[in-house]
């Protein structure tokens, strides 16, 4: 019989190795992808802060680029700085690369399931260890944010190390495990305030065990545990105290408290109402099954503390307390960040492991009472039962992982318009390579400045509300805007004052360049190779910036610039076909225009073609499939329309994915991009396109469209224009 436990442990270890490698592979997916808009962009801000430490020789992070040495108000003082220090080592050793920015999170995420296995094995046994690791590795929120170099990943890793180290320390009081636990705890507290709650729970449990009677202390060596307690309390106190003291010296302590008040705004709202408002976010992050298991486990884990009479059994409850305080107290943060409850992933893992071990304990006790002996059958049975939930959750975990990468970690963003911004990244990185050293960039508000912008441009960036209509050869000589979110008057004012560089829908100005010159480039999508699909991007197409004579003709025509020669080659893609049609219309060549229009509309969905009341006509739509899912809507203009009608597109989910444990997303979402040329500047007979890169939602998705004047009510009739099933 002595060989059975060993065989069980070997089987559990082997299965854990497989699932840990699979989870690490998921974390490694798209390691080298460019940053875009969304929550993932905050990792770029972490790396900017890390690079600024080396650039300016400071130990505190500044999360935006500066043209001068940082002042006290520039430093980021909302959270502890541990993640910035770790990231600084990677950026110094590996350089300015997106993959180097994600690598710290990937490594820590990849090591978290093994740490959970060893920790739960030390707490309970190998079967519980396997179930704990599997439960974490298949959970949607853990998979979705496994490469997210932000606060949660290092805290999860640090807490997992601390639990593992302390559980092993209590088995034989080896110093190496004391060091492991203290290192994990100190690291977690150095990365986020939430870890302080876990530390308080851990220390409270240890303190209670030292005060307990021998019958409740389960043979605690009070002297050695007291050493751990003293060291842990001292280290946590030093980390917290030094951060607060430094914040005070920088004059930012009030800013820290103000940020805390902001994040906790609305915390007094009834919890049931708050959770109902976040229903889809919660389910897509955990699934209803995981939520049910977590609720069931809470009284079981509490009972284990009493029945087992060990502070070790209280460690999962300390994790639960950390996650609960983070999610419930800081309501505003949880309302706008879908990843806010990520700490519950660690609790769910321990909850599943604790339930499995409780079932195994009861079974083994019953077998001993009945026959006086038991084999490994109970272990294998409960191991298989414990793995049923992770296996059931895994499909939703993989769907969520894909959704997170497509949406930049935003998922449905509560119905707000989501732009991947991959074309914007390509445009800004192409521009910054051609900008003068030491210069800065001003952005039009329509550029929607995100945290990745400083990272991509590697120079100071500001968003300004006024157009720069005067020449300047100073640092602030560059200005960039998105024509889709500009008025016609703004576009024309810039075209009159400066030479323009067009990159797709983006307009760039060098304030030292005057005159009526215009150059245009397309941001061309290309499909990734097999290796690029895994290591760079398969959620979005890759981008190349290339000269575009057709776009140059369209924009010169739009701004009435001359000369405006027609391209000397035939169109090669859909946008060039569209412009070729407009060139023929401008030249009065009806036959040629019809030829190009026929080619443009070939393969389009013409079922939705219809004239609108204002005379404009919906010609058809085109869905291009590939790494990027691109949807184009073609309208033929009846002429300029001063009412500036807008094409409005809304997305609704009709049904959840088949066999999903997540309910249908009921959010009505704004989708669809505006036209680069405003309707008030349209020309009769010209064809214009709204081109949108779709962020596919989970389930059967339908798009509805309406075309209405700006400022009109939402009562304009909409009709279905696209189905994604």
Helix share bin: 40-55%
Side-by-side strand order of the widest sheet: 2-1-3-5-4-6-7
Mean pLDDT equals 93
What would you report as the Rg, rounded to the nearest angstrom?
Answer: 29 Å
Number of helices: 25
Q: How far apart are the termini?
A: 54 Å
Structural class from helices and strands? alpha+beta
Major sheet description? 7 strands, mixed
Tell the overall outline. globular
Contiguous uncertain segments of 5+ residues:
none
Q: Roughly what fraction of the amino acids lie in strands?
A: 5-15%
Tell me briefly what this model is.
By secondary structure, this protein is an alpha+beta fold.
Structural summary, described in words:
This protein has a seven-stranded mixed β-sheet, sandwiched between helices. A four-stranded antiparallel β-sheet has the order 8-9-10-13, covered by helices on one side. It has a four-stranded antiparallel β-sheet with strand order 12-11-14-15, with no helix packed on it. Helices cover 53% and strands 12% of the residues. It is globular and about 95 Å long. The longest helix has 31 residues, at 377-407. The protein contains 25 helices and 15 strands. It is an alpha+beta fold. It has helices at residues 3-28, 41-56, 82-94, 98-123, 126-138, 140-144, 152-172, 175-191, 194-211, 214-217, 222-249, 253-263, 271-277, 279-308, 315-329, 331-336, 343-371, 377-407, 422-432, 452-457, 488-497, 530-535, 549-559, 574-586, 590-601, and strands spanning 441-443, 461-463, 478-482, 500-503, 506-510, 518-526, 542-547, 610-611, 617-624, 629-636, 646-655, 669-671, 687-694, 700-708, 719-724. A hairpin with a 4-residue loop joins strand 9 and strand 10 (629-636). The chain has three domains: 3-254 and 278-411, no CATH class; 412-526 and 536-568, no CATH class; 603-725, Sandwich (Immunoglobulin-like), CATH 2.60.40. The two termini are 54 Å apart.
